Amino acid sequence: VRVTFTPIQRREMGVTGTIVVLQDVTEQEQLEQARREFVANVSHELRTPLTTIKSYLEALEGGALEEPQLAQRFVGVTRNETERMIRLVTDLLHLSRLDSKEAMLAKEWITVSDMLEEVADRFAFQLLQRNTEIFIVVEQELPTILIDRDKIDQVLDNLVSNAIKYTGDSGRIELGARKNAQNELEIFVQDNGIGIPQKDLSRIFERFYRVDKARSRNMGGTGLGLSIAQEIIRAHGGDILLESEYNIGTRVTFTIPYLAGESEEI
Ligand code: ADP
Q1: What is the DSSP letter of 190?
Q2: How many whole angstroms from 163 Cα to the centroid of ligand 1?
Q3: What are the pLDDT digits (tens) for 164-213?
Q4: How far apart are CA 29 and CA 35, in angstroms?
Q5: The pTM of the whole model exceeds 0.90
Q6: Residue with CA at minimum distance from ligand 1 atom 11
Q7: HEC assignment per residue over 7-64
Q8: How many angstroms is it from 203 CA to the middle of ligand 1?
Q9: Would the pLDDT of 143 be above 70?
Q10: CB under 6 Å to ligand 1: residues?
């Protein structure tokens, strides 16, 4: 609580009283705390690949360049780390645009089944490599919907990519869509992967929150995918929810209301 005292003064009578203002600054404090944590996280996430790159470059300089095979491996590592930094900075830019409401939704009418089939196509090679199958289940005669296709594709890509990343080989992924009783489009991505322990579930949409940092990093993750997905879905007036059982699988569902009318700005 912040307390401020202001004396009440009258010309002839001097100070006749005091105004005391008690201000609840909990929310401000929390925001400030979240901001500090975010900056610390970003710095750490950028520092880690930079440190790796630096040490590999030093090794190359210190003699590894003379050994072609070793040199090739080291160059490979620095390139991977650079790519991860680019992904991270791109994700941060997306988040900051969504935060500042700069992002306008460019909505168009979309046929959901086509959209889902194209997502599966984009991952065809990766799915084949992991010997994982994807099934698309779309309710018949699902109406078309007015959405920002690029942004919803970004959400879907992230969810399917997570489903693949956190499911071992020979997995099974289901991608479904239906219209629910609240006149919303409901899309889900379900996997039979490693799942998320109960204790982590409540924090999973937080920026940089990861169940297993090392695993996520190895998989090329930035820890921002779900936060970005949540911002995009909320910008569409919808909601996103994640259900998971450790060692059984995960299901992420998002909804987007069917609106009458044309494209709008947020
Ligand atoms: P990341 O880039 O680390 O994948 P996300 O924001 O997309 O970041 O996800 C946050 C964390 O949630 C992941 O690090 C992972 O621990 C967990 N997670 C997300 N999706 C799944 C899933 N389908 N199965 C198991 N864990 C998941």
Answers
A1: E
A2: 8
A3: 999 989 899 999 999 999 999 999 999 999 999 999 999 999 999 999 88
A4: 10
A5: no
A6: 210
A7: EEEECCCEEEEEEEEEECCHHHHHHHHHHHHHHHHHHHHHHHHHHHHHHHHHHHHCCH
A8: 11
A9: yes
A10: 158, 162-163, 166, 191, 193-196, 204, 210-212, 216, 221-226, 250
